[in-house]
Write a structure and sequence with these properties.
Blueprint lengths: L1 H4 L2 H52 L19 H12 L4 H6 L3 E9 L5 E8 L3 H12 L7 E3 L2 E3 L1 E9 L3 H19 L1
Antiparallel strand pairs: 1-2, 1-5, 3-4
Length: 188
């Protein structure tokens, strides 16, 4: 060590000088990184502001005739419980579907009009044509609802109602066994 730095004083001064230089370099690097990070943040904020302006001008403003979020959703007379009781009571499992063991959930889309009448009934996601037709029939036979409102005025509101067609597992098993026996007979 004495050969590199000479006397102890020289060594301490030399090491102190190196440490000061390293500290100065690290400080410059950190300042430079902070400056670049601030510039990037400012650019990002500017881009974000521009994107928000575009959204507000193009997408944020509702199109003419578009439906706004509804303040009060339409309600079936008697509420949700009465709605599901009506669906359960009025739905007739199609016999052909029952015989074939067809099950599934049908999503029925419809409009509750300003007067509460149900119209524009269609299948959003079907399970089977037989089940879809029955679900459409049931929804189409509903009595008028209490209409939804926006700003205190009645509005048309789209509604989606799931209707599930299901059978007990033992009935499905009987149907499968019967179908398997029939298939065996047809082969022979």
């Amino acid at each position: 060590m004495n050969l590199l730095c000479g006397a102890k004083q020289t060594h301490v001064l030399l090491c102190r000088g190196i440490m000061e230089r390293i500290t100065a370099i690290i400080t410059l690097i950190l300042f430079s990184v902070a400056l670049h990070a601030q510039e990037a943040t400012d650019k990002l904020k500017t881009s974000s502001d521009k994107a928000q302006d575009v959204f507000d001008k193009v997408i944020g403003a509702p199109a003419a005739g578009a439906q706004l979020p509804v303040e009060v959703m339409p309600e079936y007379p008697g509420g949700t419980t009465a709605l599901y009781q009506f669906v359960a009571k009025e739905t007739k499992y199609p016999e052909e579907a029952r015989e074939q063991g067809i099950t599934g959930k049908v999503l029925v889309k419809f409009i509750v009009g300003k007067d509460g009448a149900v119209d524009s009934v269609s299948i959003m996601r079907g399970a089977h044509p037989l089940l879809d037709a029955e679900a459409t029939r049931v929804v189409g036979s509903m009595q008028p609802w209490t209409p939804g409102t926006q700003d205190g005025k009645p509005v048309r509101v789209q509604y989606v109602l799931p209707i599930t067609f299901d059978m007990p597992a033992q009935d499905l098993e009987k149907i499968r066994r019967k179908a398997a026996k029939k298939a065996v007979k047809e082969r022979h």
